[in-house]
Amino acid sequence: MELAKLTHENIEKEHICCAISNNKDLQVMSKKNWLRERLDEGLVFLKGNVRGKCFIEYIPAEYAWAPVEAEGYMYIDCLWVSGQFKGHGYSNLLLDACIEDSKAKGKKGLVILSSKKKMGFLADPKYMGYKGFQTVDTAEPYFELMVLPFEEEDSLPCFRDSVRRHEDMPEGFVLYYTNQCPFTAKYVPILENMAKTRSAAFQTVHIQTREDAQASPSPFTTFSLFYDGQLVTHEILSEKKFDKILASKGL
What we know:
This protein is α+β, with helices and mostly antiparallel strands.
């Protein structure tokens, strides 16, 4: 499979894999606008030259929208191969391209967010372990920071202290999110309306700067829903799933 890299010149015509509708679609517009602002910071969006979910997105960790300390490393935002493209070695192809590029840029290694067991929107810990990644830090309730160092290092990346501080969070639901994932543009307004209809205490925190993302209370800044200071889920919710959560809280 040939790989294509997003640039300022081709971003309008290229699809972005996780949302393959036309450029006028709200989700596509949201994601592409976010990407444009990151390209000059060193973000790489490398995709299979196909229409489907087959891509890797990574950025120098200093510019990552994640609460991690990983100076000199490359942070992988997302590695996603699904559907008909699974089982053909494309994850290896994309990850190997990222490794080669990161070494050429003088990086110390790669960092990625995973979990104790395989979960949606997070890297598969079994696969990452197979590729040589190791867990170097954890955050409640299930997040794991995995690292692939290129050489032996005295100090390894870690989560920032903000992921362990939830005491000042207001009661009720608090949703932290960014435009890094196109799906938030569609589903966040839906969840807000559902909460309002059910008279649920519900606040949104739209993270719009790297600095705010790096001070987030959740390792997964794309989407993290809290209730009374406890993480409920990091997985972007459909109406049906949020309805179950509201019902579980008696709402």
